[in-house]
Amino acid sequence: PIQIGIPPETIKTSMKHKEDVPQVYVLPRVMCSGGMSFGEVEFPIYFNFFVKKAMTNPETRVMMVGQSSQLQRVKTIFKESMFGPTAEEIFINDDEICSSWRDKGYSVDFLAEHSVLAHRDATGREAGIPAFANFKCFDDKGEVILSLKRLSTKRDSTNIDENVE
Q: What's the rounded Cα separation, in Å, for the pair 40 and 8?
């Protein structure tokens, strides 16, 4: 399925109605309205990657479609959510750790934690954003060409039937 917009709870809604969770999401022109975001990309990406096994079956990766500026924002949000901050973005002051813990030698090493928890590809390298989702930008005419496979899910496995354009 293809879904326009990604409101909160979109995965739960699909599952509640016993519908396939979409693979393709088109970001709406207005991504926030009335205090609600319609660009909640994290859970659809996580669901397809971990539950639908996109980590081993790239054809099931989520595809996000939108304007260039939208996709850049979405990638930034997903990067922070999945990979955490970069070394330059980490600001920990000594006074943020209580003195009794500091006295025991406790320190925070986010980069080491990240390294241990990071998802790695088959070669052992940390997986980047392209391992989790595909991003397709509308061209100057507001068009995008998607090359999709027809997917059917049966008994928790994904079968690829044929190319669909």
A: 6
Long-range pairs for 108-111 at CB < 8 Å and ≥24 separation? 110/84, 110/85, 111/87
71 three-class SS: helix
Half-sphere exposure of 20 (CA within 13 A, CB side): 18
Return the SS3 of 93: coil
Q: Give strand pairing partners of 137.
A: 66
Percent of the chain with pLDDT over 90: 25
Q: At residue 67, what is the residue type? A: Q
pTM summary value: 0.74
Could you say which DSSP state residue 59 is in? Answer: G
The tens digit of pLDDT for each residue in 58-110 reads 888 899 999 999 999 999 888 888 888 777 777 776 667 788 887 888 877 77
Type of residue numbered 113: E
Positive or negative torsion for Cα 68, 61, 151, 17? negative
